[in-house]
Design a protein that fits this description.
Strand content: 15-25%
Radius of gyration: 27 Å
Largest sheet: 8 strands, mixed, barrel
Number of strands: 16
Structural class: alpha/beta
Length: 454
Amino acid sequence: MKPAGNIIPQVSHNELQAMAYSDPLTGLGNRYRLRDKVRLLAAERAQDPAPFTICIANLDGFKPINDLFGAEAGDEILCQVAHRLKACIPDGATVTRHDGDEFAFVLPLIFERQGAERIGQMIRDVLSAPYDLGDRNVRLSASFGFAVYPFAGEEFEELLKSAETALYRSKRRGRGQITVYSREIAQEMKRATQLEQALRNAVIADAVDVHFQPIVRIHDGAVVGFEALARWMDPDIGSVSPAVFVPLAEERGFIDALSETLLRKAAEAALSWPRELFLSFNLSSAQLMDPGTTDTILSTLARVGLDPRRLELEITETAVMTSADTASRIIADLRNHGVRISLDDFGTGQSSLGRLRDFTFDKVKIDRAFISQITTDRASEHIVKAIIAMCDGLNLAVVAEGIEQKADADKLKQLGCGMGQGYYYGRPVDGTATLRYLHDHFREFMSIERSGNR
């Protein structure tokens, strides 16, 4: 008789199948379960193709929370999400979990766009309630992509791809968005892909340019530096706004290559300026999540020969919080090498004061939304006044963005704002025009030119 310890428990065929079709963390079905449910439903309705809907939902901002509180807390949130979804989906519906923070649904009784949007809103509200992690609560939002059979595809793979396209569009539009696939959306995504390829080619061909906008000392109008701004003119597409192509480069994963090219060009241009002028350059959220960012920036400056102390990097609060721990290390490393850090768009985030406490900055840029109304709206004036006073107490320099009229500049001068930027002082122009601007506005530059020509 064999010892009991050598007995190997037998697993039935049904148990093995259940394991193959289940997500081990949440107990929900997995991608294979979703596939089989969709194929079974499509087969049942093949003769009379009555519509049904599938949906993919993705949690917004899950990765930073997972990084901040740890994988165990992240798993707990995913289990709570699964519990809520099982409790709120309609009768006859199926919910599954794919990799990471992505969930999917089969909705047999949702036949058209409005019904999909309604159930998306309901699920979004359910998922937006706080999640209990014992000693703290966290909040999340979710984005949704819906695809209705057979209009968005008759085969599982095609239907799933349509839902993914809709989800991608939702993520591009921001947090908590709901998109139902349509041919128009497919065309929009196709254009985005074409634009992406053109931009990739432009980066390879070194065809994305840098323009410069002056930053001045408000009390006397003296130039103290320039902000580098990306510009792209495609021969076929025409002029493309940086508000379009910079986020696209972030989304499609080549912002590092674009940013490195732009920083190199900007630094090369700055070598022609008086040494006391600084170069201000924008960093993206993706770069603040990449531990290699510091080395990339410093090596680019070294190759060009620009002193790191002349560089000022602008980052937004949203970018900082995407991956707070990594961003904090990058900021500290760069500052240790003499690079200054500026908090951009101040006043528009959800907890800007907390960022000033948690991170070390050298400068704050007041968002143009306040500056544009500083002479007509008392609330805006008092907010700007308070920011200036607070930054003075924290020994932070201040730049007011979006100054377009003399009255705005006069009011800011009255309030004691140190620096300003906007069309009133100068529009962004290319490197050659920037040298002309310096020739006209920077006395020391003319003496440098004269000494250089001797």
